[in-house]
């Protein structure tokens, strides 16, 4: 085990040959514009840099932390998340692996059994399907099956969900897949502060964590508070964040969809909340952050205040995250509802390659606005 971990593996070629044109465009910031309201003095930081800084600080703080995956070393990461880490920490802790997710996922889990804290990078979570047996059967279930004798402190991280023009096999959202499995914690940050705080928390956690990023957000800058820049900063796992308080309808979202619930659509350059405000609708937006465990307390408290709910996700609708939230509301807060729950999700089809069809297959700001207006009886019911 340790003999394998202590070798720097050279290789040629990569999955990136499929995705690199899209990735290189995204690395230069061709993404959807989103922002949040922060103090003017807050420092701006890209999501990419926030993830890099979190890895850097945790590698410094704990010698048991290591990073492994395809192109994380010499190439400095397919999305440059691991930029500079090989030079600083060396090939014993920043390990380039062959193109074999089933192999390096298993090695990472085995290393965690023996007390190391691997951070396994998947170039995309679509490729994690090659190693999902190790994630589910080896990582998620071992603590239970060993009667608590073997902890598995490992993080599986990488881009999740739709990117731009990479087709059906590279565009899936896996939040609901992994959230279905007991023994895993599933996190999905939105902003730079979210990403930094949650990744640090995930690395420090004693259990396996699925860390779902979004490549369309990597180059986006967000304000980061002085508190979040401290090396001791981390966010609690299992706690949602109320991004915008409101009175008339609750909107839940995670990852890139938080920006859609909050802010500008890249084509229309309008704000969903502003549109609703002009209609006299005050929307409360909840950034889930943690998909498993799910902060049911915050969600239910909000719905009991607003009496309405719209859930937003870009994954498939059947058995999705929104479906679980809707069930929680029906079980715990049904008597508070003044309208049927509205659920916004991606189309129930494999992702089209054509850009115009891809846009139609994913939730847009207008979809959220229409759903919120339906919930508030400000428009005709959906046909």
TrEMBL record:
It is an enzyme of class 1 (oxidoreductase). Keywords: Metal-binding, Mitochondrion, Oxidoreductase, Potassium, Pyruvate, Thiamine pyrophosphate, Transit peptide. Its main location: mitochondrion. The keyword Metal-binding applies. It is found in: Mitochondrion matrix. One of its GO terms (biological process) is pyruvate decarboxylation to acetyl-CoA. InterPro entries: PDHB_mito-type, THDP-binding, Transketo_C/PFOR_II, Transketolase-like_Pyr-bd, Transketolase_C. It catalyses: N(6)-[(R)-lipoyl]-L-lysyl-[protein] + pyruvate + H(+) = N(6)-[(R)-S(8)-acetyldihydrolipoyl]-L-lysyl-[protein] + CO2. Residues 45-220 form the Transketolase-like pyrimidine-binding domain. GO terms for cellular component: mitochondrial matrix. The keyword RNA-binding does not apply. Its EC number is 1.2.4.1. One of its GO terms (molecular function) is pyruvate dehydrogenase (acetyl-transferring) activity. Its cofactor is thiamine diphosphate. The pyruvate dehydrogenase complex catalyzes the overall conversion of pyruvate to acetyl-CoA and CO2. The pyruvate dehydrogenase complex catalyzes the overall conversion of pyruvate to acetyl-CoA and CO(2). It contains multiple copies of three enzymatic components: pyruvate dehydrogenase (E1), dihydrolipoamide acetyltransferase (E2) and lipoamide dehydrogenase (E3). Tetramer of 2 alpha and 2 beta subunits. NCBIfam families: PRK09212.1, PRK11892.1. This is Pyruvate dehydrogenase E1 component subunit beta. It comes from Cinnamomum micranthum f. kanehirae.
């Amino acid at each position: 085990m340790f003999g394998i971990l202590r070798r720097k593996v050279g290789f040629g070629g990569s999955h990136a040959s499929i995705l690199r044109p899209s990735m290189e465009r995204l690395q230069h910031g061709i993404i959807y514009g989103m922002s949040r309201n922060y103090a003017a003095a807050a420092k701006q930081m890209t999501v990419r840099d926030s993830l890099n800084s979190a890895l850097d600080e945790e590698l410094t703080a704990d010698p048991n932390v290591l990073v492994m995956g395809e192109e994380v070393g010499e190439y400095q990461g397919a999305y440059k998340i691991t930029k500079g880490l090989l030079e600083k920490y060396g090939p014993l802790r920043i390990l380039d692996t062959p193109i074999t997710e089933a192999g390096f996922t298993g090695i990472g889990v085995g290393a965690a059994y023996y007390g190391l804290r691997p951070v396994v990078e998947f170039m995309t979570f679509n490729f994690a399907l090659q190693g999902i047996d190790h994630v589910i059967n080896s990582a998620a279930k071992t603590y239970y099956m060993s009667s608590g004798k073997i902890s598995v402190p490992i993080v599986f991280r990488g881009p999740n969900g739709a990117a731009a023009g990479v087709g059906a096999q590279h565009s899936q959202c896996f939040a609901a897949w992994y959230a279905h499995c007991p023994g895993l914690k599933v996190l999905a940050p939105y902003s730079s502060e979210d990403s930094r705080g949650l990744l640090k928390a995930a690395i420090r956690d004693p259990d396996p964590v699925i860390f779902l990023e979004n490549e369309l957000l990597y180059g986006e800058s967000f304000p980061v508070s002085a508190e979040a820049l401290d090396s001791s900063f981390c966010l609690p796992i299992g706690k949602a964040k109320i991004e915008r308080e409101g009175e008339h309808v609750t909107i839940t979202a995670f990852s890139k969809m938080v920006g859609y619930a909050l802010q500008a659509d890249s084509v229309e350059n309008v704000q969903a909340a502003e549109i609703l405000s002009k209609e006299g609708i005050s929307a409360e937006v909840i950034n889930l952050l943690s998909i498993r465990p799910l902060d049911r307390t915050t969600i239910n408290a909000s719905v009991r205040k607003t009496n309405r709910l719209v859930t937003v996700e870009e994954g498939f609708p059947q058995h999705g995250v929104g479906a679980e939230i809707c069930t929680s509301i029906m079980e715990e807060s049904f008597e508070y509802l003044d309208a049927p729950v509205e659920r916004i999700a991606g189309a129930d089809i494999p992702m089209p390659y054509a850009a115009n069809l891809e846009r139609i297959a994913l939730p847009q700001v207008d979809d959220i606005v229409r759903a919120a207006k339906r919930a508030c009886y400000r428009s005709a019911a959906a046909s």
